[in-house]
Structures are given as C-alpha cells and as structure tokens.
C-alpha cells in the first residue's frame, strides 16, 4: 500500500498526461485525414475544382467556428462541445468514400458534401487548442511539450500512412481516421472541463454583452483579426496545392504524408521550448518570426524545388515557423480576450481565417493553373511576408499611440 502511494501521480501530472493523450492521439488520427485533396485529385478533380471546393468549405467555416465557439461559451463546456464536434466529424469521414466518385455530377456532389462536413470538421482544431490552452492556464501546465507530443504523433502517423498507401487505396484513410478519433474522445471524457465562473453579483446578461464590446474595442485583437485576414489568403492555399506541385515535379502524391511528417517533426523543437521562449521573448515577436519562416518556405519551394528531397528540406522552414505559430497564437488571443469569451475570441479568429480563405482558394486554384507551381509559390510567399509586415506596422502604430497590449507581458 505504501509503495502505491509513493508511485501515485499528482493531479497536475495526471492532467498533463491526459492532455498529451488528447493531443497525441487526435493528431495521430488527423494525419490520416489529410488525403482529401489526393483522393479527389485521383478521381479527376483539377486544381481549379479543388480551389472552388475549398472556397465553398471556407464559406461554411466562417459560420461553423463562430457558432460552435458561441455554443461552447453558452453551455460553458468546451469539453462537451469538442466531443460532439469530433464525433460528428468521424461520421462524415465514414460516408466520404462511399459516395459515387465517378458519377456524372461527382464534382458538384463532392463540393456540396464537403461543405456540409466542414460545419463539424472545421472547428475541431480550434476547439482542441482552446481546450488545451485553457486547461494549461487553469492547472499551471506547460502547453509547449503537450502540443509538441501532438506533432510527434502526427509525424509517426503521417509516415505510417505513406507506407500503408503502398498496400491500400486512399479511401481507407477516411475510415481509419473515423476509427482512430475514438481514442482522443475517450481521453477527453476523463479530462478536466475548464469553466468560466461568473461573479455572484453580476447580472444575468450584462457581463457577456459588455465583454463582447470590450473584445471588439481592443485595438490589438481587432488588428490581429485584420492581419489574420491578410495572412490566410495565401496561407490557406499553401498546403492545398502541394500535391499538384508534386505532380508537376514528377513526384508521386502518395509521398504527401512524408512531406507532412517532415513539417510536423520540425514543429517539435520550438513547441517543446515555447514556454522558455515566451518567458524571454514577447508573443508578438514570436508571431513575426513564425510568419517570416512560413513565407520563406514558400519562396524556396518556388525558386529551387525540383526533387522531393529539396521539397522536404524547404518544408523544415515551414515546420519551424508553424511550431512558433502554434505555440504563440492561441496564447496571444487568450491574453487579449475577457474571461467569459476565451472560446469565442479564438472562434472569431478561425471564422476570419475561413472567410479570407475563400479568396485564397478561389484565386489560388485558377492562379496555379495560370502561373504554374513555381511562380505560384513565389507569389504566395511574398504575400505571407507582406502580412507579417502589416502585423509589425500595427504594433508600431499602437506603441506610438500609447495603447497598452495585454499580451506583451512575459509568461
């Protein structure tokens, strides 16, 4: 009995292991979910078709993230909302390969179906980040290693998926995703559900409405949403057309999983040490570095990629940038938002990203066909770097006007 007590885990350690299980097994499952473009490409859809499909899905995503975020804040349960959304997403994955891919109006059918599926699939990542960040803040946990474990599991899963595609059809990735998401759902069921505790003397409806006004009067939150709008025009198309760039360079698109694995692997170093970085560097500087690295990757892909090895080497820059982005953006918004609107603030961000992704996907599909892969990636690299410049400019203006930034405090 004494031995069991000595080896028992503290509540904090249990909470960290639970969140690592949620993040790790979610991203392990979600690696199999990245083959929608490959599946549709193999069934005859062109880059412009994919662009239209993604644009329509982005329209749905505008409302999906905002609606599920508000539902989460309304019922005061990010945990229940995440379980519902992830469970419904699993159902959509099961159905996708059963649709008649070679029917006369298959393209229209896929556009309509994928748009409907987006309503539950689009908010999943946002809700997961919100659940993790809030639990880390409440329980004093380090977000970085927890999210890094997700990237590590994604790396393993992406590599495994590439190997399995030598022996199975792409359609099996949808069914495997649906099966594997059961594991993170179980972990969430046993995890903590962070709650907003309303002050006892607060009126029933005044707190939320006043907080909403306060959120949208926050200069740095509003300018961050504008920055997001500019950034996601190119960023939304960057990953969507990698399989087409592979095809153009004579690389099999079944290697897409290895490409994603390289990116995910390179997210880990910065994610693992993100807490130490945030203790020494302000979040805004980390965001700037992240955007710079992601834009650089696009430029390198456009100017120099001819082989799969070169493609993977340049993917490292995006992975490092994305590690910084993942480790900073959710916390940046968390610090800017009132306590009662933590989920809504991140959901509005996701909705803005979806809204401007419409432009990116629509223009991207036709631009890719017009410019070709190399020129296309140079152009979007320039736009990503320009978005980073806009972010810098807004902070310089805010500093000149003496507007305090709640996210400037070092962790």
Give a description of the structure.
The longest helix has 30 residues, at 342-371. The two termini are 40 Å apart. With 411 residues, this protein is an all-alpha fold. The chain has helices spanning 2-6, 11-30, 36-42, 47-75, 78-95, 106-121, 124-139, 143-164, 172-180, 182-189, 206-216, 219-238, 242-248, 256-272, 274-280, 283-304, 308-336, 342-371, 373-400.
Keywords:
411 residues, mainly alpha
Radius of gyration: 21 Å
Determine the structural class based on helices, strands and strand pairing: mainly alpha
The helicity comes to over 70%
Span of the ends, CA to CA:
40 Å
Main sheet: strands, sense, barrel: none
Q: What percentage of amino acids are in beta strands?
A: under 5%
Poorly predicted parts: none
Which sequence of SSEs, written as H and E, runs from N to C?
Answer: HHHHHHHHHHHHHHHHHHH
Number of helices: 19
The global form is globular
Tell me, rounded to a whole number, the average pLDDT: 86
Question: What is the tally of beta strands?
Answer: 0
Give the helices and strands, then pairings.
Blueprint: H1 2-6, H2 11-30, H3 36-42, H4 47-75, H5 78-95, H6 106-121, H7 124-139, H8 143-164, H9 172-180, H10 182-189, H11 206-216, H12 219-238, H13 242-248, H14 256-272, H15 274-280, H16 283-304, H17 308-336, H18 342-371, H19 373-400
Brief summary:
By secondary structure, this protein is mainly α. 78% of the residues lie in helices and 0% in strands. It is built from 19 helices and no strands.
